[in-house]
Every structure is written in structure tokens, then in C-alpha cells.
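Researcher: Here's a chain I'd like modeled. Treat it as a single chain, no partners, no ligands.
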Amino acid sequence: MALLLNILWFVLGGLVMGLAWWLVGVICAITIIGIPWARACFVIGNFSFWPFGQEAVSRQELSGRADIGTGPLGLIGNVIWFVIAGWWLAIGHLTSALACFVTIIGIPFGIQHIKLALIALAPIGLQVVPVRRS
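Model: Modeled as a single isolated chain. C-alpha cells:
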């Protein structure tokens, strides 16, 4: 089911938002100082292409220990990210979500866009992992 949803997602809008993430990642990488944000952009961009069957979780929850992205420097990085680029990507995802919510079949895609909008606000310290089935 995740494969079918991912294919529909990619064709019906996931490509555009994934490319937006990659564009921001390229811009961050060009600035040299933005390389930590660029890496996060490419990871979340890939996640934005194929979101079903995956989730973004805090690396601290995943590993049980703090690292540079989940500590105070990660918080500062997320604040800088939010001010410069995060809210633009979040607006893009929210706009896409509203377009998806117009149809009943688009509701799962709209929900996914809302999740990605929340990730867009603070992506530093997150890792994309497969969804755990209980």
C-alpha cells in the first residue's frame, strides 16, 4: 500500500515539494556556512519525495543520547533555519495540504503535507526511519 501511495504522491505533488527542499539545500551548500542545513534539506527532500512508510524522529529518541544536532547547537540551528527558510517551506507544504484536502482521496496526502510542514519548521536533529509496525 505504501508503494502505491508513494507513486501517487510523487506524481501529484511530491515531486514539486521535494525539488523545493533540494533547491534550498543547494542554496545552503553554496554558502558553505549552510552545509549543516544543506544535509538536512537533502534528507528531508528525499523523505518529501517518498513519505509513506517512513517517519522523521529525533535522533535523541532513536539513539538514546544527545548529539550536536539535538542539543543547544541544534536548537540555535533550528531557530536560524526557521527565520531564513523553514517558514517558506512550511507555507509551501500547508498550501499543498489545502489543495489536497479539497478531494476525499487527497486527505492522506494533505495529512502528509502537514507532517512535512511541521518538519520544515525545525529539521535539525531529525532522522528519517522506516515506520515501525507493532
